[in-house]
Amino acid sequence: MKPDVKSLTHVAIIMDGNGRWAKSQGKPRLFGHRRGAENIKSIVEESIAQKISYLTIYAFSTENWHRPQEEVSGLMNLLRFYLKNEIKTFKKQGVRLRMVGERSRLDKDIQELIAHAEKETQDNSVLTLQVALNYGSRGEITEALRKMVSSGIEVSQITEEKIGEFLYTAGAPDPDLLIRTGGEQRLSNFLLWQSAYAEFYFTETFWPAFSKQEFQKALSVYDGRERRHGKTSDQVQ
Ligand code: IPE
Ligand code: IPE
Ligand code: MG
What we know:
By secondary structure, the protein is of the alpha/beta class. About 45% of the residues lie in helices and about 15% in strands. It has a 6-stranded parallel β-sheet, sandwiched between helices.
């Protein structure tokens, strides 16, 4: 017999489609990024309501530096704004913020704002919000290997669990469900290692228009999936 509700601990989202959404409204791309950033709030609220423990959102990839300078600095300014203004709400909601990605390439003041926000929210335990920023999965794995080798680890100590401990996401469970908005069906260098057994949900809806209702729909589609992890259907029922 199938359990009524499948366990859902961790949802990851590739928040794509801000630019195209803005275009559809006859507005500049940055307008789409602003609405996209606002939309994160409602998905965080709904994640809490759904008792999800981890939400990981792809905010800026290592490849996104190749965008026009004006767009990159607009995105960084948005980040500054939310890092300063959301801490109060996170405290009220019990949200623990954690940045996953390579920090050193970010402006110094942003690095400081991140460290401050993480520290201020570190004891919150309702939801861990992992923001993937200057994140790329291959870079993450490469960096993990570098750290492992320089820590002098023995060959016999290299296990899958050990590798997980050296990733930016160390300590977080693997995502159960990975959502991508905006119509593309690719991972764009996001959580390659961690998504080995994630269920995927793709929607045409652009991120700024991805509502709580659509999010609920994705969760109910997930609920109907059969996760076999390599076993037969009979074994998992
Ligand atoms: C996602 O939306 C946000 C970031 C990558 C920062 P896009 O900016 O990629 O929007 P589209 O895909 O061009 O519509
Ligand atoms: C992925 O979106 C990165 C983020 C959502 C932050 P992109 O728009 O950068 O991905 P591609 O270029 O379409 O693969
Ligand atoms: Mg895009």
